[in-house]
């Protein structure tokens, strides 16, 4: 049951779990706005950003505003309900620079060397093939780009071991909430 609730290494949660998560996030967002969550990432006007594991899309409006009309945000998720949720937010807030992208968990339909910033919040613990996942993120990021990776429901030590063993990323900083990584391009 714990694996089902935390999503440990399951890639894609069942639809009812996604709906339950969305309900809980809506309540949490009423109590505390999620708008401060992206501040440490220093998103700039004109950047291309990937919100990988965008889930309910709770950060899309803020990311869209931060990168402005000249920037773009990709909302990537493995779950169809997440993509539907992103589309609803795009319509509700008229987010012309946000593009939803459904992934199969292995590849994403985003060109190589596209993103200035990729952030993955509360989802890394769900990834089964972490090396493949981190390699795909490396493919999409520009040289000199930054990956912000939250541990999720796993110990920081384990998250760092996964990043280091991939050979695709160098951890350059860490905070209480996430590690910052630079791509290792070969």
Tell me the layout of helices and strands.
Blueprint: H1 2-6, H2 15-31, E1 48-52, H3 60-67, E2 72-77, H4 80-93, E3 98-102, E4 115-120, H5 130-140, E5 141-150, H6 156-166, E6 169-174, E7 178-183
Give an overview of the whole structure.
By secondary structure, the chain is an alpha/beta fold. The chain has one domain (2-35, 44-183): Vaccinia Virus protein VP39 (Rossmann fold, 3-Layer(aba) Sandwich). Helices cover 35% and strands 24% of the residues. The chain has six helices and seven strands. It has helices at residues 2-6, 15-31, 60-67, 80-93, 130-140, 156-166, and strands spanning 48-52, 72-77, 98-102, 115-120, 141-150, 169-174, 178-183. Strands 3-2-1-4-5-7-6 form a seven-stranded mixed beta sheet, with helices on both faces. Helix 5 crosses helix 6 (156-166). It is globular, with a radius of gyration of 15 Å.
Structure characteristics:
6 helices; alpha/beta; 186 residues; seven-stranded mixed sheet; globular; single chain; Rossmann fold; 35% helix
Give a quick precis of the structure.
The protein is α/β, with parallel strands linked by helices and 186 residues long. The protein has six helices and seven strands, in the order H-H-E-H-E-H-E-E-H-E-H-E-E.
């Amino acid at each position: 049951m714990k694996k089902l609730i935390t999503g440990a290494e399951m890639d894609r949660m069942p639809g009812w779990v996604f709906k339950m998560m969305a309900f809980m996030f809506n309540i949490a967002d009423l109590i505390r706005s999620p708008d401060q969550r992206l501040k440490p990432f220093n998103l700039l006007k004109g950047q291309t950003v990937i919100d990988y594991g965008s889930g309910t899309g709770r950060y899309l409006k803020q990311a869209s505003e931060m990168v402005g009309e000249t920037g773009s945000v990709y909302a990537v998720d493995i779950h169809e309900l997440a993509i539907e949720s992103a589309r609803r937010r795009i319509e509700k807030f008229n987010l012309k620079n946000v593009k939803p992208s459904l992934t199969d968990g292995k590849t994403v339909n985003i060109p190589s060397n596209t993103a200035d910033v990729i952030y993955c919040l509360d989802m890394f613990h769900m990834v089964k093939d972490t090396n493949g996942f981190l390699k795909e993120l490396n493919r999409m990021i520009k040289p000199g780009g930054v990956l912000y990776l939250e541990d999720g429901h796993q110990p920081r030590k384990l998250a760092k071991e996964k990043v280091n063993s991939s050979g695709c990323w160098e951890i350059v900083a860490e905070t209480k909430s996430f590690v910052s990584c630079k791509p290792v391009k070969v």
